[in-house]
Amino acid sequence: MSLWQTVPWETGLVMIPLAAAVLAFVSGPHHRLWLPLLTIAAIAFCLIGLTGQVLMHGPQRHAVGGWGAPLGVDLYADGLSLVMLWLTAGSGSLISLYARPYFRHEPDKAAAFWPLWLLLWTALNALYLAADIFNLYVTLELLTLAAIPLVTLAGGAAGLTAAIRYLLFALLVHSYICWAWRCSMAASAAWISPSSETCSRLRPQLG
Amino acid sequence: MSHQALLFCLTAAGMFGIGLFGFLVHDHLLRKILALNIMGIAVFLLLVAIARRDPMTTDPIPHAMVLTGIVIAVSTTAYFLALTRRLFRESGATRLTEDEQ
Asked: Do B36 and A172 touch (CB under 8 A)?
């Protein structure tokens, strides 16, 4: 029972779809059913473990690789993260199960779709588990970069035009996000990426 | 904040505005991505200018964040150029056209 509670399930939620995306890219267009099913099962397993941990012990913070907050990446799981993770896992499972027969007659599109979709799932999970604003920015970038080739899968010049439009808007908005969190760093005098605890220091100064 | 840092911050704000103006005004896709790069570099300049915890020493951690941002900017620029080249090869267009309704 104690092993179940001390294992950091958050790392599995980020690493499993990432490893599956790499495997999908390497194994090419000849796809079997085991890769999406195994990914869904493993993510559900990690989610159940993480839900048990958060319900019993409160919000969990895990430093990936043992490296701490300023330079390393922290994964922070609380109730809101869990809700979003379950939502994404639920709809992601349905999408994965539907996508296999959808791309049955187009193997080269399927070869492009699976790594991209699994990378998108990785970026979403990492976004929900991000502990500070810098990680939010980086995972939002990952989300954009994973979603744009999925837009080009529609094909032809129309798909490319839509993808370029999406990328232009996304880069513009990301510049604004960057500017905003750097100003918030300066205002909160944190000088490192403000996590949710240091951002609460901004509140007495507003209004 | 020292006068030097203030000057850098104002320059960064000016560059951000110039980049935004260029992005909104130009139609050609290559000019749009150049303007977006100018906006990105303005943000990095802001972070480097305010990266100190006490007036004597500079803080290396925001510099690491700037490097991460530069990597992200380079990869998105490369990605955008690949998409633009593909669009040019498919349809001969270098400007995004309006949607036909």
From this structure: yes
